[in-house]
Amino acid sequence: MTDTPLPAPPRPAGASRLAPSEEERERAAAFLSARFADDTLSLDEFEERVAAVYRVASMSELNALTAGLAPVVPAASAARGSHGAHEVAIADAVPERDRRFAILANLEHHSMSVVPRHLGLSAVFGNVEIDLRDAKFGAAGTEINVHAVFGHIAVTLPAGTRVEQQASGILGSIECPPSPWSRPRRDAPLVRLTGRALLGAVEIRYGEPRALVDRAVAGTFPRVDRPRRGS
């Protein structure tokens, strides 16, 4: 006989006799986590529904918690009114938006040739690591929106990247510490960090482009600045 994660309450009259399995509950919780990550659910709605996932006694009750929550499809970008000539010129070279996510999984995306204007990174009970030190950035700036929900996100940026930290933590951490490699450079990209960490962590690291490191000292590990805990 399969044990349920929590004692089930008495079934209401007319409820299905088939109780959800542990796998079905976990699948529903993962789906709700994804909808929270893409802003379909508010924090209060997310917490309330996830708690209910482990209390409901029937499949009909479980299905009701996820009903009507189809994944959000990004709308087409709004038409631009007035922009500088330089920004218009690079519009074709820089994608508008992209997203990387890990739900109950580990994603190590080691490289990206061109960073979109809006990059979304989500880790829900998972881990996302992305290395952008060799990537090209748009001149108008880049927004990296993070959602770490019981998860971890690590982003490596080119040394000297100018970071505007606007993300928030809810019982979580956003680590973007100063260091010699984080000192802003005029020729480095501008990145706005937005989003949140809910019982999770977001780390910003800095690294010299591999080509520079290889020319300086062949055969050594690429220099990467990692946040130092407790310092």
What does this structure look like?
- With 231 residues, the protein is an alpha/beta fold.
- The chain has 2 domains: 22-66; 95-225, no CATH class.
- It contains 5 helices and 12 strands.
- It has helices spanning 22-37, 43-53, 59-66, 85-89, 210-216, and strands at residues 97-103, 106-109, 118-124, 127-131, 142-149, 152-158, 162-165, 168-170, 173-175, 190-198, 201-207, 224-225.
- The strands form 2 sheets. Strands 1, 3, 5, 7, 8 and 10 form a 6-stranded parallel β-sheet that branches.
- The longest helix has 16 residues, at 22-37.
- Mean pLDDT is 76; it is low at 4-16, 74-92 and 213-222.
Oligomer: single chain
Give the overall shape, derived from the CA principal axes.
Answer: elongated
User: Can you count the beta strands?
Assistant: 12
Give the H and E element order. Answer: HHHHEEEEEEEEEEEHE
Q: What is the domain total for the residues?
A: 2
- Class by helix and strand content? alpha/beta
Helix content: 10-25%
Distinct helical segment count = 5
Radius of gyration: 21 Å
